[in-house]
Amino acid sequence: MVTRLHAVIGVAFRWIALGLLGGLLAGCVSYPPAPTSAASADYRYNIGPGDSVNIIVWRNPELSMSVPVRPDGMIAGPLIEDMPAMGKTPTALARDMEKALGTFIRDPVVTVIVTNFVGTQSEQIRVVGEAAKPQALPYKQNMTLLDVMIAVGGLTDFADGNGASILRATEGNKQYSVRLNDLIRRGDISANVDVRPGDVLIIPQSWF
């Protein structure tokens, strides 16, 4: 009976050891460092659900309005019902509204201004793991890792900042390493890199 108990305990310890080894090996996975420059000069903002848009119809103030983009990506207003807005630039939405309003008024001139930025889900920056306030952020032109970390309130006490990585959807989910400890806690600006629309910042927990 004692021998059998020893055997069971031995097997259990082997499984625990393998689990710890697997965890350590997973934590040692290395990715290439994120490129310092990644911003695209031709980036244009795409409207997303939750945005607010000001629609100005020249010489037709009764048709001008400020409306939210609904969760289904549509907007509605005078003479217009259920017009798709999600994924369009403000300029593209303005041209579509001109076509729709052209049925009712002569030569409409429309300007669209976004006043509350949320953006499409595919372009949001998502921060998961050991950030003080993990969340999704709207992407802004020339946004950097430092901007993201300020927005999420920095790292928790349990974060492995230099073990963090960026999953880049625009490059087929390629993963890059980033040095958040050096950037946030040591003030090493050389660790600051550009982020791109759709990036996921993954901050693991430290084992030590």
Textual characterization of the structure:
The structure is a single chain. By secondary structure, the protein is of the alpha+beta class. The chain has 2 domains: 52-116, wza like domain (wza like fold); 124-208, Roll (Outer membrane lipoprotein wza fold like). The protein is 25% helix and 22% strand. The protein has 4 helices and 10 strands. The strands form 3 sheets. Strands 7-6-10-8-9 form a 5-stranded mixed sheet, with no helix packed on it. The chain has a 3-stranded antiparallel sheet with strand order 2-1-5, covered by helices on one side. Strand 1 and strand 2 (65-68) form a beta hairpin. The longest helix is centred in the first third of the chain and has 26 residues, at 2-27. It starts with a helix and ends in a 5-residue tail after the last strand. Residues 5-27 have low confidence and may be disordered.
What fraction strand?
15-25%
CATH architecture descriptor name of the largest domain: Roll
CA radius of gyration: 25 Å
User: What is the rounded distance between the termini?
Assistant: 38 Å
Described by the principal axes of the CA atoms, the overall outline is elongated
What topology, given as strand order, has the largest sheet? 7-6-10-8-9
* Helix percentage: 10-25%
What is the highest CATH level, the class of the largest domain?
Answer: Alpha Beta
- According to CATH, what is the topology of the largest domain? Outer membrane lipoprotein wza fold like
Tally of individual helices = 4
Average pLDDT for all residues = 89
Characterize the largest beta sheet: strand count, sense, and whether it forms a barrel.
5 strands, mixed
